[in-house]
């Protein structure tokens, strides 16, 4: 892609000024993630990538960090642009049909690898 990469990390692993966001992970544990404050400038186009979105908690925290730093926002094709704006995109191997997964898919441009006919198996962890 010849584009930059920025990891959003668990708190305490970066030795620069950061912005932090608390969240609840897929196992129900309270955690904090952080990102460099100098990494995302207003207007920067962002693609958020996670290997698996189960409950959506981690991705929602990442979205919040990007939003707070001013990453570029696009509207979902089925939402009125003046009501809600969104990051350029969200990608994962699988986005489960949990409440959080559905929330992300309803509001953001998403891409994942699971065919619709197999999605129920992933949602039920089969």
TrEMBL record:
<keyword id="KW-0963">Cytoplasm</keyword>
<dbReference type="InterPro" id="IPR000836">
    <property type="entry name" value="PRTase_dom"/>
</dbReference>
<comment type="pathway">
    <text>Purine metabolism; AMP biosynthesis via salvage pathway; AMP from adenine: step 1/1.</text>
</comment>
<comment type="similarity">
    <text>Belongs to the purine/pyrimidine phosphoribosyltransferase family.</text>
</comment>
<protein>
    <recommendedName>
        <fullName>adenine phosphoribosyltransferase</fullName>
        <ecNumber>2.4.2.7</ecNumber>
    </recommendedName>
</protein>
<dbReference type="GO" id="GO:0005737">
    <property type="term" value="C:cytoplasm"/>
</dbReference>
<keyword id="KW-0808">Transferase</keyword>
<keyword id="KW-0660">Purine salvage</keyword>
<dbReference type="InterPro" id="IPR029057">
    <property type="entry name" value="PRTase-like"/>
</dbReference>
<dbReference type="GO" id="GO:0006166">
    <property type="term" value="P:purine ribonucleoside salvage"/>
</dbReference>
<dbReference type="InterPro" id="IPR050120">
    <property type="entry name" value="Adenine_PRTase"/>
</dbReference>
<dbReference type="GO" id="GO:0003999">
    <property type="term" value="F:adenine phosphoribosyltransferase activity"/>
</dbReference>
<comment type="subunit">
    <text>Homodimer.</text>
</comment>
<keyword id="KW-0328">Glycosyltransferase</keyword>
